[in-house]
């Protein structure tokens, strides 16, 4: 049984609505950044140099494939995105601030649909004091994501007769329940079948004919990544796994995400967008710029290109580390530094200017509320908790540059006990929950 909260968690309706309304703007920003190769290279060059085996390889492969294809992304660009927010402030003054933008393997859409249904049932079954209107429906989340994948799949079928979707998964995948809900929804609603393979299996089993991917006798329309976001995903046979990534990205199948989308989701890009002129490079409408900037938390650079405001933030972090989080270019949870560990890391590196692979972020202090959390089907405990909101959205731009999808899909709420630093569910820190919007 997935770790869950027993009941929905209260969340301000105003801020929940704001996060929903921002989803399409975040999608458009993501897509524009991903196609600005020169800007991505300038922003990520130092991080790539300090992390050559992962960030460096992603960036190098991205450049190689674009050069080979005259700058065109074959198969178009499909993103299943999750923008994560945390409340900052007290009481009615609390507002959302963006924690990160997840562009690869955005998980728990399937289980979030289920837990919203479970909480709605519990509230009605036991006549609990939750107004029905306060429980926003999340029932269409998984069907919305399946619809976006189907749109990319059908775009492929306009040229070729039949195909299946490839789920790129981890070796020994532990999150199959969440993935299988999406897989079954694709079949039930769209009659689309799914093949599941690890990166290493793809290299061994795939055939390429005229840039078309053939796997188990079927063409592949979409390569949907639930793996490939961390070095460990490339396994012991590292070169074989990277070869699989190159084969998929070079083909006419749609990658979800493309390398450009994955790179746009890095912490360094998020930090650079927060600089003055960052968002403005990609968004012309001033009101839209202000809406996006309004949810940015404080973000500062580490590394050799630190500016005066970055150096000042690093100095404050040395003096009051409890007010900051230090983040590397990694996804999946469990990689961040908090409190005294920030100071130790900077001292160990000989100063913040030697930490190009990290950024510094202000630590948010969201309102707390009591929660009963369950893990493994048993009550883990009851006490003060805090929650993180994830907003799912999807975007699909075909090879000709036509935007066929850009929409809000649903939400995820993760709740953890106060005092727990990290927020991942699969990594054992948080539980799945749902919203009571008031």
Automatic annotation (TrEMBL):
GO terms for cellular component: cytosol. ATP binds at residues 100, 267, 327-336, 338, 388, 416, 422. GO terms for molecular function: ATP binding; glutathione binding; glutathione synthase activity; magnesium ion binding. Pfam families: GSH_synth_ATP, GSH_synthase. It is an enzyme of class 6 (ligase). Residues 164-263 form the Glutathione synthase substrate-binding domain. InterPro entries: Glutathione_synthase, Glutathione_synthase_a-hlx, Glutathione_synthase_C_euk, Glutathione_synthase_N_euk, GSH-S_sub-bd_sf, GSH_synth_subst-bd, PreATP-grasp_dom_sf. Mg(2+) binds at residues 100, 102, 331. Keywords: ATP-binding, Glutathione biosynthesis, Ligase, Magnesium, Metal-binding, Nucleotide-binding. Pathway: Sulfur metabolism; glutathione biosynthesis; glutathione from L-cysteine and L-glutamate: step 2/2. It catalyses: gamma-L-glutamyl-L-cysteine + glycine + ATP = glutathione + ADP + phosphate + H(+). Binds 1 Mg(2+) ion per subunit. Substrate binds at residues 82, 104-107, 173-175, 179, 226-229, 414, 425-426. NCBIfam families: glut_syn_euk. Belongs to the eukaryotic GSH synthase family. This is Glutathione synthetase.
């Amino acid at each position: 049984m997935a770790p869950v909260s027993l009941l929905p968690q209260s969340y301000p309706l105003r801020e929940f609505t704001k996060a929903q309304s921002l989803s399409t703007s975040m999608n458009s920003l993501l897509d524009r950044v991903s196609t600005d190769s020169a800007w991505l290279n300038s922003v990520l060059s130092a991080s790539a140099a300090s992390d050559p085996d992962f960030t460096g390889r992603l960036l190098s492969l991205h450049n190689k494939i674009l050069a080979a294809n005259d700058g065109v992304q074959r198969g178009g660009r499909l993103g299943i995105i999750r923008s994560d927010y945390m409340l900052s402030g007290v009481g009615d003054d609390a507002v959302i601030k963006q924690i990160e933008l997840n562009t690869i393997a955005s998980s728990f859409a399937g289980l979030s649909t289920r837990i919203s249904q479970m909480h709605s049932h519990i509230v009605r079954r036991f006549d609990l004091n939750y107004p029905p209107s306060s429980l926003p429906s999340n029932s269409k989340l998984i069907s919305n994501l399946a619809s976006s994948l189907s749109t990319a799949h059908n775009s492929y079928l306009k040229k070729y007769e039949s195909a299946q979707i490839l789920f790129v998964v981890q070796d020994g995948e532990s999150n199959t329940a969440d993935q299988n809900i999406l897989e079954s929804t694709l079949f039930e609603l769209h009659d689309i079948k799914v093949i599941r393979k690890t990166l290493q299996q793809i290299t061994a089993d795939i055939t390429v004919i005229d840039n078309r991917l053939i796997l188990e006798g079927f063409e592949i329309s979409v390569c949907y990544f639930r793996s490939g976001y961390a070095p460990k995903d490339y396994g012991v046979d590292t070169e074989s796994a990277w070869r699989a990534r190159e084969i998929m990205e070079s083909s006419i199948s749609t990658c979800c995400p493309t390398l450009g989308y994955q790179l746009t989701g890095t912490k360094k890009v998020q930090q650079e967008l927060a600089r003055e002129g960052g968002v403005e490079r990609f968004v012309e409408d001033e009101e839209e710029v202000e809406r996006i900037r309004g949810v940015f938390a404080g973000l500062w650079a580490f590394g050799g290109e630190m500016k005066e405001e970055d150096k000042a933030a690093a100095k404050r972090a040395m003096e009051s580390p409890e007010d900051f989080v230090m983040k590397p270019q990694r996804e999946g949870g469990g990689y961040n530094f908090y409190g005294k560990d920030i100071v130790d890391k900077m001292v160990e590196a000989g100063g913040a200017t030697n930490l190009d692979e990290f950024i510094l972020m202000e630590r948010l202090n969201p309102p707390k509320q009591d929660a009963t959390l369950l893990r493994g089907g048993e009550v883990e405990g009851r006490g003060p908790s805090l929650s993180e909101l994830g907003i799912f959205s999807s975007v699909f731009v075909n090879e000709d540059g036509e935007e066929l999808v850009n929409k809000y899909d649903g939400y995820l709420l993760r709740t953890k006990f106060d005092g727990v630093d990290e927020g991942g569910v699969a990594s054992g820190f948080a539980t799945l929950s749902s919203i009571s919007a008031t």
